[in-house]
Give the backbone structure.
Amino acid sequence: MPTAREIMTADVTCVGEKETLAQAAHKMAELGVGSLPICGEDNRLKGMVTDRDIVVKVLARDRNPADCTAGELGEGKPVTIGADDDAQEILRTMSQHKVRRLPVIDGHQLVGIVAVADVARALPDRPVGDLIDAISE
């Protein structure tokens, strides 16, 4: 069974915890992605920010994304997967936490992201279908 390191997308761009959500939105648009990891000045993962977070938690509350930092949305301990964890653990973690993207950590260093699409390419249809059902509930 493949590991997270083998199926992850390694080219990961972070948004700094002190960068504004307007800057995060611009990065997402430039990269064509819907989420970014939030990294601290210590290069440790502080959370994830999604385009939906910006809309629901900022714009819909009449807050200015140029006045809010990414760190303000990085609540709690982020759900992650270890670089050497196998695909079974990826499926279990995504299903349990109902997430579509998992930051991949090696020690304390962010080394990649595993998305549902990465899992779909690496595994047979049945486990992926079960995952989609679990995170779509």
Residues 13 and 31 are 9 Å apart (CA to CA). The two ends are 26 Å apart (CA to CA). The mean pLDDT is 88. DSSP finds seven helices and six strands in the chain.
